[in-house]
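User: Predict the complex with biotin.
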Amino acid sequence: MTTDAKILFALRANPEGVSGAQLAEQLAISRAAIWSRIEELRQAGYEIEAGPHFGYRLVSSPDALHADDLLARLGKTKVIGRDIRVFEETTSTNDVIEKLARDGVKEGVVVFAESQTKGRGRLGRKWTSPTHKGLWFSILLRPELSPQETTQLTVASATALRRAIKNVAGISAEIKWPNDLLIGEKKVVGILTEMSAEVDRVRHVILGIGVDVNQDAAEFPPELRKIATSLKVEAGKEICRAELATEILRELDFDYARICGGKFAQVADEWETGCLTIGKNVSVQMGARQIRGCAEALDDDGALLVRTEHGHLERVIGGDVTLEK
Ligand code: BTN
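Assistant: Here is the predicted structure with biotin placed in the model:
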């Protein structure tokens, strides 16, 4: 953790205040150095009170993502979030991670951007990422999975995001296979999983996640208003993006450990509980091919098993799934 992250961690752990002397001792730096870091944090928008009786006290944090703040809020995780980087603007956070992957950076690094100029979704779609309104981030993973097992990661991401949204915003979102979270039939989260692999070995996986957090309904482009929503619209209040971001990383870290520990079955059970696709009639568009049938279950790799009109069981690993009315 950086010095700023340690200071923010100590301030959050002591809401009634912590003295400059205590901070200096804990961090093994001078009181003058602490004072200068506190000034920097104030410049960055943190409201930090100082007084002779309580020392330093954190009053409020800015609505901006700061790597140090996210690290301090997150605390220790096994893999995901041990390195966090925040950009004011990028093309796509998946591109930034791709470059880090090629440079040999360790798995678990997370890149957030306050806005993306070329945010992308599945199937070549564009992803709108307005500044400071959502969480637009990507994670580098190097799992020991075969290429076909990587669908497990998308499934795990959906369950982790669902728990995090429930914990922070108090809303139960529903999962639409494989990678959407919906509230009342409107999309609030999208996940784009990209992978670099050899025939039987994954080199790395990039999990790109977009969460619509604090947009008002009117802020969505007209073409998205009927199909997309934000947590703010649904919860009726602003959501602290930094708190949500760290809760998501914590839950993802937990599910990633379950997958790497061979416990995908547990994740899949939880996924099925929160999934609106299972048991429904669906149509699946896979390139030029379309199938129709009933979505029965997930298989061991996270693929969707669809019983077609002709009675065959089809294994779906990609494509666009629409619920039939
Ligand atoms: C989808 O539903 O089609 C997936 C959308 C994924 C969007 C996120 S935002 C962060 C990351 N960077 C991107 O360019 N896309 C993903």
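The chain has a mean pLDDT of 94.
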